non-specific serine/threonine protein kinase
Amino acid sequence: MSFLLLLCYHLLSAPFPISVEASTPSPLQLEADALQQSGWWVGRNISQHCQSKGSIICDASGSIIDIFVDWKLPAGSTLHNLNFSSLPNLVSLYIFNSTLQGSIPPQIALLSNLTFLHLSRNHLTGHIPLEIGNLTNLLELHLDDNMLTGRIPFEIGNSSKLSKLRLHRNLLTGTIPSEIGKLMDLMELRLDSNMLHGTIPSQMGNFTNLFWLSLSQNRLMGTIPSTLCRLPVLSVLDISGNRLSGVIPPEIGNITNLRTLSLGDNNLTDPFPLEIKSLYRLEQLYVQNNAFMGLIPSSVFQLTNLKELNLASNSFSGSIPSEITHSLQFLDASCNMLTGSIPFNLFDLISYHYWLQIDLSHNSFNGPIPSMSIGPRELHGVTMNLSYNKLTGSIPDFLIHFHHIDLSYNCLHGPLSNQFLHHFGVDVGLGNENLCGNHSQLRSCASHNHTVHKLLKILLPSLILFILFVVCFTLYCSRKSKNTTHVTEVDSHGNVFSIWNYDGKIAYQDIIDATEDFNIKYCIGTGGFGSVYRAMLPIGKVVALKKLHSSEAAKWVALNESFQNEIEMLKEIRHKNIVKLLGYCLHKRCMFLIYEYMESGSLFWVLSNDTEAEELKWNKRLNVINRVAQALSYLHHDCNMPIIHRDVTTNNILLDSNLDAFLPDFGVARFLDVESSNHTVVRGTYGYIAPELAYTRVVTEKCDVYCFGVVALETIMGKHPRELLNDIWSKSTPNVAIKEWLDMRLRSPLTQNGVAQRIVVALTLAFACIHPNPTARPTMQHVSIQLLVPRPGLEISFNEILVEQILRQEIYRVNIISE
Ligand SMILES: *[C@@H]1O[C@H](CO)[C@@H](O)[C@H](O)[C@H]1NC(C)=O
Ligand SMILES: *[C@@H]1O[C@H](CO)[C@@H](O)[C@H](O)[C@H]1NC(C)=O
Ligand SMILES: *[C@@H]1O[C@H](CO)[C@@H](O)[C@H](O)[C@H]1NC(C)=O
Ligand SMILES: *[C@@H]1O[C@H](CO)[C@@H](O)[C@H](O)[C@H]1NC(C)=O
Ligand SMILES: *[C@@H]1O[C@H](CO)[C@@H](O)[C@H](O)[C@H]1NC(C)=O
Ligand SMILES: *[C@@H]1O[C@H](CO)[C@@H](O)[C@H](O)[C@H]1NC(C)=O
Ligand SMILES: *[C@@H]1O[C@H](CO)[C@@H](O)[C@H](O)[C@H]1NC(C)=O
Ligand SMILES: *[C@@H]1O[C@H](CO)[C@@H](O)[C@H](O)[C@H]1NC(C)=O
Ligand SMILES: *[C@@H]1O[C@H](CO)[C@@H](O)[C@H](O)[C@H]1NC(C)=O
Ligand SMILES: *[C@@H]1O[C@H](CO)[C@@H](O)[C@H](O)[C@H]1NC(C)=O
Ligand SMILES: *[C@@H]1O[C@H](CO)[C@@H](O)[C@H](O)[C@H]1NC(C)=O
Ligand SMILES: *[C@@H]1O[C@H](CO)[C@@H](O)[C@H](O)[C@H]1NC(C)=O
């Protein structure tokens, strides 16, 4: 019945008269024919393509605006199969990982409304057609991971609205056209892993919004144009793996937003600019395999946020300064001409990080290995390579706790204990003439050939002395700090406390003091995995702490090392709508994560407080929905490994002082799952758990999609849509007007400014997202794009729109509903 109504609606609202003459088929019929003739939907019922299951979206008049394919197309499928001249209104063409072959036809220019062209990860060959420049509405052009050849057409400069241009991982040749400088709105430009030659065009300095520029792994020559240093918001600059020469322009210090600077594998020469010290946000600096000489400016080691520094295979001389930023976790200075002793502060980094990797091999470092009295602590994340230097002295005992160490080819002396040999193998000490040990490849410690008794006689007193020392030291420390038991216990259990993006001076004790040992009065929210606390640190900065429930904490501890690797990966995740993780503490009894603090608290809190909820006007609410969709789309589709959030709730969405939304806690669940993947443990928060989890154990991205739907409804309704969740798709929906469901605390939305229209789109998507069948839910990428697709104005009064009409996507079509 409703299907017939729908059909009538479509026929009535079709802009062209329906012709019965077979000779002049209507535009809508031509669209249908184009789909059929493509052969892409073989085995899928598209006889009523606007409503059949599939991936086609139509506008209100029934004309196709969005084609979304993420399955493997029939063998031999090409873009030439699709008659573009029949699809004049197409806004988004998304064909991802579908083994699409052949070239991009010049007829693509017929799609004058095309805004999103995503053809990533296919087998496309041939040239990029110069007609791409006719697509003047294009915002995103993703042709990465194909086998495209030829040059980048200079006509691309005519697609002047482009904000994301991804052509990486193809076989493109030729030079980078200077016309690319006309794309003033570019935010992301990725041309890496091609065979481009020539120089970097100086016009690239014109991109005022560019935050990601990657030209790495090409054959670019010449110098780094100083105009690149004019990019005000650039965050990632990767031009490694080319043939660039000359110096790093001193203007580099102007790009103060830079977080990653990758210049490795080029032919850059000294001097190394002192201005690098202005890049206080820098987290990764890679300059390996270049021709740098002379001293490394000591300010490089003092950049407060620097985590990774790769200086390997240059000709740097001089020594490493004694002052080193506590944020450093990766240092490769191997194969240089560095001298002097290894600074104590470099070893002291093990007090700040669980995971630490240092390679100083093939230099001329001398002096002894710094000795530390660190007591029994977790050092299993530490790897050091000190081989091929001129280090002297004996081997300090604490090194035995490292994950790995290489001391070969130095001038060390004394015994190499059996324990050392057992842990690291004999290679650890080879090439040290005066090192002895119980191994055929080492000199035996003949002069120390004592019986076991004699050995004990000597070792026992020193052992007792050592224990006494440790006890005294611990007592001394305990007295110095107020909360004695806690600190001692933490230390003797080997807690891990890691903090980054910080000056390193914040300590575990600061956190305990600031929250009075997690006193309930600092608690600002509770979620499926733990509670969130607000902590004002001694230096005046406020952070948010997520303290995991003790059962969760125990699992993290059990995972330990694999967890450490994962958290390193999480730290790399950058998205403007994802709250930055600042650090964490891992301990049997207490496990917490440290996040940026968001002034306005959780979305749940704002919605449940009448004054705050009134501040969160319709526009802001729609922005919240948009931003959460983008953040989830990023986690699901743009990370190296898709990340399922698993706890998307209004409690877990935080708002800053502008009421802009941020998503924290991404991926927490993923670690937990490594261990419990075979268990039926329903995680997440009650009221947000996808129904299929009641009968399957498989958690997919579609569970997040469901949660997103609930969150979007809750944001619009102002309260949890509890009673609606079970009924809406199963029973016949009551004929209520949608306005009955809106948050009454806000004035009803206006049609003139497009807010009413955006609410209808958001609600339509939200309903699709809470579909009980996970396969009928859209992907987050789809949702995030659909929220942005421009739509015609409402044709009926907002107040008259019924819930059922939105459910059946009769106002705006956003996704195909399954039966
Ligand atoms: C295809 O779907 C339409 C409705 O969308 C239905 O009427 C038709 O019977 C279906 N055809 C097949 C072969 O399933
Ligand atoms: C594509 O469609 C147009 C009408 O929109 C038609 O004239 C043309 O012949 C079609 N092309 C092919 C190759 O089928
Ligand atoms: C496509 O563009 C034309 C003008 O080129 C415009 O009239 C039409 O409304 C657009 N269609 C959509 C769906 O935006
Ligand atoms: C691409 O598709 C193949 C199967 O066709 C699948 O195994 C693979 O995971 C997909 N890759 C991505 C990135 O989705
Ligand atoms: C592309 O644009 C140019 C100039 O505006 C025009 O001459 C040409 O016909 C267009 N090509 C197509 C295929 O529309
Ligand atoms: C690009 O735009 C310029 C003017 O804006 C125009 O003269 C030229 O024909 C266009 N080129 C293409 C290929 O559309
Ligand atoms: C782009 O940069 C070049 C030089 O780098 C400059 O001459 C030109 O005016 C800039 N173009 C725009 C549109 O700003
Ligand atoms: C850029 O850096 C140079 C040299 O470091 C400096 O003289 C100049 O003022 C800076 N320009 C801007 C816009 O900051
Ligand atoms: C690097 O530059 C030097 C001169 O600065 C040159 O002699 C050398 O051949 C270059 N190496 C490469 C690999 O281009
Ligand atoms: C340490 O560095 C040397 C030389 O760079 C290398 O040969 C050796 O394999 C490294 N050791 C480890 C354990 O990686
Ligand atoms: C030396 O090593 C052998 C086996 O590798 C072992 O049996 C022996 O007990 C060791 N001797 C000493 C003194 O540790
Ligand atoms: C060590 O001393 C014992 C006797 O105390 C002797 O039997 C043994 O051969 C000696 N080992 C070596 C390697 O000199």
